[in-house]
Amino acid sequence: MVNLIALYPGQGSQFPKMTLDLYAASQKVRDLFGLASEVCKKDFFAILEQGTAEELQDTRLTQLVVTLANRAAYIRLQELGMQMICHAGFSLGELSSYAGGGILDDETLFKIVQRRGILMADSAREAELKHGKLGMAAVIGLSFQEVESLLEAEKLEGLYCANDNGPAQVVLAGKENLITQAKQLLLDKGAKKVIPLRVSGPFHTPFMEEATVEFSTFLSNCKFSDPQQAVISSVHGDFVHSKEEALALLARQLASPLRWTATMQRIETFARTQDSVVLGELGAKGVLSGLWKSSGSFLPCSTLGTEEAIKLATQEYKENDNGY
To answer: Could you tell me what percentage of the chain is helix, strand and coil, using 3-state DSSP and rounding each to the nearest 5?
Structure first.
């Protein structure tokens, strides 16, 4: 039996009409759409069928449709007989990993995601009013430690390392004028590129601290369970051991750096202890598959977000049992 380690993408993996092929193929996916639409008071089929890329860019909507796509892929894989043994999510995707690991049920999941999106949008807007124009940029070619050391040495207060995406990919977030100022310094330090990102807020930085406080209060009234399967958090790159820890990590996540390099390393270590393991990103865009490939891991990562990809993969796994 092949065992799947499931990775769940976050914001940036959305696009119009995504996951509608899974909707057409599965009654269980259609039931998920119905539940999410009822909980959030939105018609998600219409949103994905008719929505533009620009409309899906609004974090209040992005977070919901990405979570819906992640969970739809999970349901379809499970429906076709795939066994999942470990879950990890990138930023927003952490909530989907909690659902996959049994910490959250789907109703609670969508309630939390909806509240999270609203709080993050409001917090980002308030931060800009207070601090001026804010932004994010990807730094290619330097490690998290190298970029963090440069920011500290240059005393660029108001600019933070937000995402540790891989051994040589870091995301900066903070004051836009400081990103411009830091660009040449980073290139001189050895960065290959510094690329501005189209995002709606300085996520995973102290600019989101106010949202963290309110989100923590909201989460305290939500139903959490202890993990039923292994779940690895991108807040600290380690396993989640209890419902109390899961709640604390989700609240802390908004204003804390994303530790994806550590998460990938923990996944690889876990995979070496298991028999017949495969790794899959439960999203159609291949964002995490790309990061995984660039990490240099021995374990390949498949992109499992469409009906075609899921069917081909599950058939191949059953026929060949080709795990690692």
So the answer is: 50, 15, 30
- Which of helix, strand or coil describes residue 311? helix
Quick check: 79 and 224 in contact, CB under 8 A?
no
CB-based contact 243:219 (threshold 8 Å): no
- For residue 231 the two structure tokens come to 């779940």
What SS3 state is found at 100? Answer: helix
DSSP codes, 169-216: EEEEEEEHHHHHHHHHHHHHHT-SEEEEE--SS-TTSGGGHHHHHHHH
The residue annotated as part of the active site, out of 87, 123, 204, 289, is: 204
**Distance in angstroms (rounded) separating the CA atoms of residues 9 and 283:** 6
Q: Among residues 26, 37, 91, 200, which one is catalytic? A: 91
Among this protein's residues, is 131 annotated catalytic?
no
In whole angstroms, give the CA distance from residue 155 to residue 158: 9
Contact 240, 103 (CB under 8 A): yes
* 87 tagged catalytic: no
Minimal CA–CA distance to 49: which of 84, 90, 20?
20
Each residue's pLDDT expressed in tens, for the chain with a length of 324 residues = 789 999 999 999 999 999 999 999 999 999 999 999 999 999 999 999 999 999 999 999 999 999 999 999 999 999 999 999 999 999 999 999 999 999 999 999 999 999 999 999 999 999 999 999 999 999 999 999 999 999 999 999 999 999 999 999 999 999 999 999 999 999 999 999 999 987 767 899 999 998 999 999 999 999 999 999 999 999 999 999 999 999 999 999 999 999 999 999 999 999 999 989 999 999 989 999 999 999 988 899 999 999 999 999 998 887 776 555
CA distances from 197 to 7, 134, 138, 194, 265 (A): 22, 11, 7, 10, 26
